[in-house]
Amino acid sequence: MAHALPRLFSRRFCQPAALPRSLNSTSRTSFRTSIRNSPSPASRRGYASGNPNSSPLKVWPFVGIALAGSGAYALMVKSRVEMPPTTEQIAAPKKDTPTFSPSSVTVLFVLGGPGAGKGTQCANLVRDYKFTHLSAGDLLRAEQDREGSEFGDLIKSYIKDGKIVPMEVTVQLLENAMTEVVEKDKDHKGKFLIDGFPRKMDQALKFEETVCPSKFVLFFDCPEEEMQRRLLERGKTSGRSDDNAESIKKRFKTFVETSMPVVEYFEGQNRVVKVLATKTPDEVYKETREKLEQRLGKNF
């Protein structure tokens, strides 16, 4: 059957046309001559290649389609080249064990809404208890401005829109900073306050799985109205692109929807130290020290 169709088409269309039986010999000769002299199917089609009588107007539509297709393909390639890196491109290889052991490295996650005073309290703890303060936001802002950074544009766009930067980027920046500190310590130990992280559950799980399990979350609880007032005041001198009313509103929404479930998750494991952050900075710090001593001991 596979060869039947070609033979069928060759018999019907490729052989000379049958001559009518009613024609006499002279008429039959004339008929054959007319067949030979009649224009071929190709010449009757104006768009056939190589036909001098073909109309150029009938060729241009096909040329136009080809050019349009080429242009669209070029634009598609260009847009793919200019696209920011995706999380698939930055995913780190899986690890069987975390990089650091909690017996030698102490990690406290420091959470609170934007403007809750996390940075101020972390600075106090660094001064008095020799913690290393790692701000996820500061690391990301430094990386976005680092010359030659592969993910600078990606980070800028996420921060501007008040969105959470892909966790692969943030976790790797934190691990790099911790490694630098631990390697410099003679005992290869370290105490870290990780400020503004984790902001989503997948970040928390990824960090504890691959970098180091945390002791607990230090959560500074502050009403939204107070945080907004503080941020707008800070925005007058901070120079930060996200200290404006529009970005602040987006950041509040993101915190409530994504970060509060993290606090609730750790609270369910009795791994949250909550501090009311509406008082003066000194009063907040006094309460912070008292609660950390209860959890970690006097000489934490």
From TrEMBL:
Q: Which cofactors, by name?
A: Mg(2+)
What are the start and end residues of every segment in region (Disordered)? 24-50
- The gene it comes from is URA6
Q: Which organism is it from?
A: Cadophora malorum
* Entry protein name: Uridylate kinase
Give the main localization category: cytoplasm
Oligomeric form and interacting partners: Monomer.
NCBIfam families per record:
UMP_CMP_kin_fam
Matching CDD domains, A to Z?
Answer: ADK
Function of the protein = Catalyzes the phosphorylation of pyrimidine nucleoside monophosphates at the expense of ATP. Plays an important role in de novo pyrimidine nucleotide biosynthesis. Has preference for UMP and dUMP as phosphate acceptors, but can also use CMP, dCMP and AMP.
Q: Member of which family?
A: Belongs to the adenylate kinase family. UMP-CMP kinase subfamily.
Report the subcellular localization: Cytoplasm; Nucleus
Region named LID: 233-243
Q: Does the keyword Membrane apply?
A: no
* Membrane spanning residue stretches: none
